[in-house]
Amino acid sequence: MGSLRPDTSHPPSRSVSPVPSATSPAPATLPSNDDIEAIIQLATSSSSSVPQKDTRTQLFVGNLPYRVRWQDLKDLFRKAGTVLRADVSLGPDNRSRGYGTVLLASAEDAGRAIDMFNGYSWQTRVLEVRLDRL
């Protein structure tokens, strides 16, 4: 039989209750709503940085196949970049009018989409893609 020795790999645990001393700092208080508002204003103010330019760009897509829906259009244009929105114009009978718009995240994505899809043959139709006139 082996000898029984106390385990010294871990120091014994003991319960410690917080006792305030003269040198310990006072407990922190929660910030007020005014403090939180001031922090939010400071963080969101643009005085220290240049305002971001909105580079979203909308394209007109003409000569769409009549069975195409907005999801099909969005899936196609994802090959060119980040698509924020795609719409197909519908008539009163809920059928496609043959054109739509695609909103891309940047002007670079829009330029790439024009290069890729203007004159592109899609489901027997040749697409017309250009910047949308607002």
Chart the SSEs and their pairings.
Layout (H helix, E strand, L loop, with lengths): L32 H12 L12 E6 L7 H8 L5 E8 L5 E9 L2 H11 L3 E2 L2 E2 L1 E4 L3
Model description:
The chain is an alpha+beta fold and 134 residues long. The chain has a domain at 55-129: Alpha-Beta Plaits. The chain has three helices and six strands. The strands form two sheets. The chain has a four-stranded antiparallel β-sheet with strand order 2-3-1-6. The protein has a two-stranded antiparallel ribbon with strand order 4-5.
CATH architecture of one domain: 2-Layer Sandwich
- Spatial ordering of strands, largest sheet: 2-3-1-6
Q: How large is the share of residues in beta strands? A: 15-25%
According to DSSP, the number of beta strands is 6
Coarse morphology: elongated
Computed CA radius of gyration, to the nearest angstrom: 32 Å
Q: Whole-number average pLDDT?
A: 83
N-end to C-end Cα span: 91 Å
- Low-confidence residue ranges: none
**CATH fold naming of one domain:** Alpha-Beta Plaits
CATH first level of one domain: Alpha Beta
Structural class: alpha+beta
Give the CATH superfamily of one domain. Answer: RRM (RNA recognition motif) domain
